[in-house]
Design brief:
The protein contains 3 helices and 12 strands, in the order βαβαβββββαβββββ. By secondary structure, it is of the alpha+beta class. A hairpin with a 2-residue loop joins strand 5 and strand 6. The chain is elongated. The mean pLDDT is 80.
Length: 193
């Protein structure tokens, strides 16, 4: 398989004729539904097909990890910020959150913060390659600093970062929560679109 080939689609045959089942599986079908069928049977076949397809995608991603590592190493390990008339070099992974404050942004670390005259949108774009995710119109979080997410009855989420501080993830930005982790493990749908 070439590095960027896509896995083949998962095919589920639905027919009234059982004699075609063998031919369907010879053509790599993942399931074969015989009419008449129930909604439960269709859902079962689709669930199986999606798991197979997800497994193929995961296998493909594992195969691409060396290429992804090479691409990710193109970002410098330090960024330069101009503050108080001097230029400081910091590791972006040391930042926990970036918060808009009027025409400024506050870059917060565990051991201090920096106030810069910059827009939150500009920093969102510049820090995206370092794992920063927008969770509010005025807040970016470092994905590596997130420790917990809890749903709220309002449809928003509460997000806790290292150090214990909590922030609200607004409904507009809750779709960005999926990018906080490479793998989601567990049953049930937690992050609702």
């Amino acid at each position: 398989m070439q590095p960027f080939d896509r896995p083949s689609p998962a095919i589920v045959f639905v027919t009234a004729y059982s004699q075609h089942a063998l031919a369907a599986f010879e053509r790599h079908a993942v399931d074969y539904i015989l009419k008449p069928f129930s909604a439960e049977r269709v859902n079962e076949a689709l669930e199986f097909a999606s798991r197979r397809t997800a497994g193929d995608r995961a296998a493909k991603l594992i195969e691409l990890i060396p290429d992804l590592r090479t691409l990710s190493q193109k970002h410098p390990s330090r960024i330069a910020i101009k503050t108080d008339g001097r230029i400081l070099f910091i590791d972006p992974h040391d930042l926990i959150v970036v918060q808009a404050e009027g025409n400024y942004v506050l870059l917060q670390r565990e051991t201090g913060s920096y106030l810069l005259r910059e827009s939150i949108s500009t920093l969102a774009e510049k820090l995206k390659p370092y794992g920063f995710v927008r969770i509010h119109r005025s807040l970016l979080v470092n994905a590596a600093s997130v420790q917990e997410i809890r749903p709220c009855v309002t449809g928003e989420y509460s997000l806790r970062v290292k150090g214990g501080k909590e922030y609200t993830v607004t409904r507009t930005y809750k779709k960005n929560l999926k990018s906080l982790a490479h793998f989601w493990i567990g049953s049930g749908a937690f992050l609702v679109d």
